[in-house]
Amino acid sequence: MTQTGYRQFCPVAMAAEILCTRWTMVLLREFVADSTRFNDLRRGVPKMSPTLLSQRLKELEAAGVVERRGVAGEKGISEYRLTESGKELRAVVEAMGLWGQRWIEARLSLKNLDPSLLMWDMRRNLNPTPLPQRRSVIQFMFRGLPSATRAYWLVVDPPGEVDLCSTDPGFDVDLYVSTDLRTMTAIWMGLTTVAKEGDKIVLTGSRDIADKMQAWLGLSPFAAEPKRAAA
Amino acid sequence: MTQTGYRQFCPVAMAAEILCTRWTMVLLREFVADSTRFNDLRRGVPKMSPTLLSQRLKELEAAGVVERRGVAGEKGISEYRLTESGKELRAVVEAMGLWGQRWIEARLSLKNLDPSLLMWDMRRNLNPTPLPQRRSVIQFMFRGLPSATRAYWLVVDPPGEVDLCSTDPGFDVDLYVSTDLRTMTAIWMGLTTVAKEGDKIVLTGSRDIADKMQAWLGLSPFAAEPKRAAA
DNA sequence: CAGTATCCTATCCGATACTG
DNA sequence: CAGTATCGGATAGGATACTG
Predict the structure, then answer these.
(1) Shortest CA distance to A113 belongs to which of B218, B163, B7?
(2) Is the CB of B47 under 7 A from strand C?
């Protein structure tokens, strides 16, 4: 809140005092997605300054929504977790996300492309089940981006560990995915599919993994919800 | 939003850009409660300046959440209504209110007492059914408040028109309710009941109307939800 | 890795008065 | 009734550098 609160006893107003402050809902989304460490949270809100992140964490802690605990054995390292109260904020985050998915025009969302953010999200929701029972390495190349942010590697180790690298980890690559960032983002958001965009995606390497791409790609938690906003 | 948006394609972030700006959720609550006129909206957000209200209305209109229409026959008068998209924000408002009701400590909410706001809310949700089939006039007196904000009259005309006055409308009063603002607010919020607070409420006049008070009093839409926060 | 410290400015917002 | 105009101040928060 800018300066003071709303001075209303209404639960909507009281909740909004805590929740409707810059970055807070986006940060809570990261918590709902199970990030617990400062720098993991940061990756989910890269445009937020660490100072502000730190401040928000303190505010959420004071509000009883988040609790901070030192990690046993590791000095100076903390984990942040939703409290019981905080866990129930999932309903608010989901309501907001669902509404956004339905009513925000796609072209507005797609103005905010960000390859690291996309990859970070993909890492989170990737579904390893359709992949082979051995390590799979998938390299993403986003055409047209500066070389610093063009390439990413997803390293999937059974049963379900997924690592994301932005520099070549040196493993043999099973599948190369070359496409543009906008297309990949639209797929992740459920606005289109791998099959529909076939001509914009070049898949090189394992035919098997390529054919199952739509299956192992984790999509956004809101991808299943159809758009209602005008295109 | 303070300055620019979040630059994230995520629907939660896109929605939060529109919704998580000062006063916006509280204002939307007014829309969900069916207020349509500028000054009615204002009564629900009395601490919001008319300038800011006007600005928010424009923003919500631009976001496609609210539409403004002139009232036929009355020049210079507009009504604001939720669009189809806006109506679906009820889910967000309700999720937030539900969470607030469950997790905000009662003593925090009860720091924000406001008699006009309470009466305005009561007017909205009053249930005329248990009242007699003729006009009923109920006067509320809040002990300890300055005389300007101490007395209110609810005038209920069957079948369901409810008027709120802050100056004596001159009708015969059927029931006088004398209590303190905190108690009345707690009852409205569902934190206690008329029966439990019997010794703090003095009811004078119609025995019949007095006995049914808990029934005709409309409570907050969230009153049924039990608190989970520590007392 | 996990944050703090500092600085500076844009802008949001509150207050008040005013108009058709 | 239904807003607009203006103004000034607070502060939120962006940028950057730094520390244990």
Answers:
(1) B7
(2) yes
